[in-house]
């Protein structure tokens, strides 16, 4: 998140299907309304840290009170504690939990099986990040094109399997390489580039660069570590795959 960009949020869509909001971090609902009707979207969530899910409260208000939503609740694929945690955030009183089952049809990630939603097949893998966090491998059903979203992750655990050979790799690169970085949390430009090379991905898109980090330095690290085409993700950019 920065002064000109919201926190993590992406819109994923296969032709002829409902859009999917992929994470919904703080500040994202404003721009989202220019790209899709939030009443007509389902969701997939990598984890429940605020920079990836804070604007879920705004979406709840929109779906309940805009008079645009149908009677159909939005499908959510996400961490197992979604209804409990978000219900506590949205509750009127401390220590209580708001019932969200009228708004969301929640399905927890299943590490043992693929899950289908709106023209895509998702396969979740545990991310190298605190808490219940996931990265995901996504296949478009009609074309077989493949995509990986890292969520927040370090270089261990499922990200290596999730991103192997994908056409497009949307990878977080929070930091530049430097001493004493926390382990099991985030990627650097160098780590993202090296993984793209090792896994022979078709295209690397760098995202989730922290606002105090030089984006161009992150990009330079990745370019030095790979021959794969690399881009920095920018707000409202459109990528086809």
TrEMBL record:
SUPFAM superfamilies membership: Metallo-hydrolase/oxidoreductase (SSF56281)
Residue ranges of every copy of the Metallo-beta-lactamase domain listed in the record: 6-184
Pfam families: Lactamase_B_2
GO MF annotation list: 3'-tRNA processing endoribonuclease activity
Matching InterPro entries: Metallo-B-lactamas (IPR001279), RibonucZ/Hydroxyglut_hydro (IPR036866)
Gene3D superfamilies listed in its UniProt record: Ribonuclease Z/Hydroxyacylglutathione hydrolase-like
Residue ranges crossing the lipid bilayer per the database entry: none
Family annotation (PANTHER family): METALLO-HYDROLASE YHFI-RELATED (PTHR46018:SF4), ZINC PHOSPHODIESTERASE ELAC PROTEIN 1 (PTHR46018)
Protein name: Ribonuclease BN
Protein's organism: Lawsonella clevelandensis
Origin organism lineage: Bacteria, Bacillati, Actinomycetota, Actinomycetes, Mycobacteriales
Encoding gene per record: rbn
